[in-house]
């Protein structure tokens, strides 16, 4: 279960958006306790900001409505504020999940391999050629009824 957050992190905010416009945008979704556009020493936006709401429900409503909203041609990024370790853990989990989905998608793909060299005459030699690219579940070099190489095989 996600934490009951009230503090939001915002990035990709158009540099032309003023502090007043920024506050007005986020006040639409609830009672804002603070809204700050981060600026450099010259007063220019650093392209990220923070907003804090009084309740989790208000913060969640702002995320639901403003995340990926286009403002002056830029898609706004709005999410809960996270510590670096939390962000890294979430990214690691999503990477692992994507990796597992990719593996399962190609888990039983059968490749047809043609024009095999004459020295690739058994299944183990063909397997050795393809093992660097992933897990091999089956491998077969095709022969005719007289055990003559047909010049093709399959790798799964």
What's this model, at a glance?
This protein is α+β, with helices and mostly antiparallel strands and 156 residues long. Helix content is 32%, strand content 29%.
**How is the largest sheet built, in terms of strand order?**
2-3-1-6
Approximately how much beta-strand content do the residues carry?
A: 25-35%
Shape: rod-shaped
In sequence order, what are the helices and strands, one letter per element?
Answer: EHEEHEEEHEHEE
Rg: 28 Å
Question: What is the structural class?
Answer: alpha+beta
Q: How far is it from the N-terminal to the C-terminal residue, by CA?
A: 39 Å
Average of pLDDT: 88
> Could you name the ranges where pLDDT drops below 50 across 5 or more consecutive residues?
none
Number of strands: 9
Q: How much helix is in the residues?
A: 25-40%
Structure description:
This protein is of the alpha+beta class. It has helices spanning 19-27, 56-66, 84-105, 123-130, and strands at residues 7-11, 32-39, 45-53, 70-71, 74-75, 77-80, 111-114, 139-143, 149-155. The strands form three sheets. It has a four-stranded antiparallel beta sheet, with helices on one face. The two termini are 39 Å apart.
Question: What topology emerges from the helices and strands here?
Answer:
Layout: E1 7-11, H1 19-27, E2 32-39, E3 45-53, H2 56-66, E4 70-71, E5 74-75, E6 77-80, H3 84-105, E7 111-114, H4 123-130, E8 139-143, E9 149-155
Please tag this protein with its features:
three-stranded antiparallel sheet, 156 residues, alpha+beta, 9 strands, 32% helix
């Amino acid at each position: 279960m996600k934490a009951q957050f009230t503090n939001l992190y915002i990035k990709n905010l158009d540099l032309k958006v003023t502090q007043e416009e920024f506050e007005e945008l986020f006040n639409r979704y609830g009672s804002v306790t603070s809204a700050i556009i981060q600026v450099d020493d010259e007063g220019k936006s650093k392209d990220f900001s923070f907003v804090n709401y009084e309740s989790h429900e208000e913060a969640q409503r702002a995320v639901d409505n403003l995340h990926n909203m286009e403002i002056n041609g830029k898609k706004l990024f709005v999410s809960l504020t996270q510590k670096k370790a939390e962000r890294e853990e979430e990214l690691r989990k999503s990477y692992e999940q994507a990796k597992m989905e990719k593996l399962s998608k190609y888990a039983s793909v059968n490749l047809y391999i043609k024009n095999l060299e004459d020295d690739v005459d058994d299944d183990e030699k063909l397997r050795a050629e393809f093992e660097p690219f992933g897990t091999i579940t089956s491998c077969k070099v095709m022969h005719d009824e007289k055990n003559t190489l047909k010049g093709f095989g399959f790798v799964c």
